[in-house]
Design goal:
This protein is mainly α and about 170 residues long. The protein has helices at about 5-20, 35-40, 70-80, 85-100, 115-145, 155-170. The longest helix is centred in the C-terminal third of the chain and has 32 residues, at about 115-145. The chain is elongated and about 110 Å long.
Amino acid sequence: MTKVRPIGAIAMLAIFAMAPALIRPVGAQQLSDRAKQMGMKINCMCRGCNMAAGICSHPGGAFSGPCETAKAMLKEVDQHIAKGETDEQILQAFVQEYGTQVYAEPPKSGFSLVAWILPSVYLFVGAGVVIFVIARWRKRTVQLTPSSATGAPVISPELLERARAQVSRETQD
């Protein structure tokens, strides 16, 4: 009888420890995988974050987790999926409701294509400017310091004579 109590207590403790993992929170919704993928393509429109609706978390403070706006948007995506709409139709429905700022990444067509191309253009132009400036600096330093075959700078005889005269004047004192 005394051995049964510890085993029973351990079993009860294990059940209570695993209960949070087994019980789904009240109001939790199960989203389809496709809804989660679509949530990564649209921004959360709560104005409190700049995250995709699929990963909106509002970290910090007393509240941490997806905001109500993100939950509603994901639920709406799931409803569109249940109606049999394609990903493009779902995105267009959100664009009509919120405007083009709902895109998590700009579309790769039309004027939005500029947002994809310009970073690469800036990188190549910047690298070209750096190479050009360095080449000019190297040419300028070579032209300013002519040297003899030994590598020492060439000094004119007049300048050398003037320096010797100045040294002899200063050392006579």
